[in-house]
Amino acid sequence: AGAAGIACMKLIQVYGAKKENCYICDTNGVIYPGRPEGMNDFKATLANETVTEETTLEQVCDNADVLIGVSVGGAFTEGCLKALASDPVIFAMANPEPEIRPDAAKEIRSDCIIATGRSDFPNQINNVMCFPFLFRAALDCRAPQIDESMKKAAAVALARLAAEPVPDEVSRAFDGRTFEFGREYIIPTPFDPRLI
What we know:
It is a single chain. This protein is mainly alpha-helical. It is built from 8 helices and 5 strands. The protein has helices at 3-14, 41-46, 57-61, 78-83, 102-108, 131-140, 148-162, 168-173, and strands at residues 25-26, 29-30, 66-69, 89-92, 113-116. A 3-stranded parallel beta sheet has the order 3-4-5, covered by helices on one side. Strands 1-2 form a two-stranded antiparallel ribbon. The longest helix has 15 residues, at 148-162. It starts with a helix and ends in a 23-residue tail after the last helix.
């Protein structure tokens, strides 16, 4: 649970996810209240009260709808994926090697929607789609800071854009690949001119 993981968890909770349904992990395992090693104030505020020292990542994946990783390649095991609820959403965003590769995830869970941080897989999650434009919007409206509501608004705008027809120039940038909203296209590509 570095800066990216903590920021993701905060945004998920701004969206309305109940804290008791959210779990956060770091290199020392699942974060629990009072954990002595590798803690800081940010992690402590996100610790789930139902977690103990013995709780594993596989256990917190049990019947989870969403699994987000911003950690290290290979972190998501077969057991983690098998434990997830039906039609899970998996964001495996470690680079250059994701927590699990899309082909491996789909072999284990054919019902999953998976995104990574890599451009050579469908559903690339990349901060370049948001940061320049979010900063520009903040400057345009003279906002003194970027808050959670602004981040949420940017995420909602990206989600809406993904559901709209994709311009031909995006397909040309990807050697003619077609994009249509669905399991293989849940977020615009960084080359989509509509992001500007």
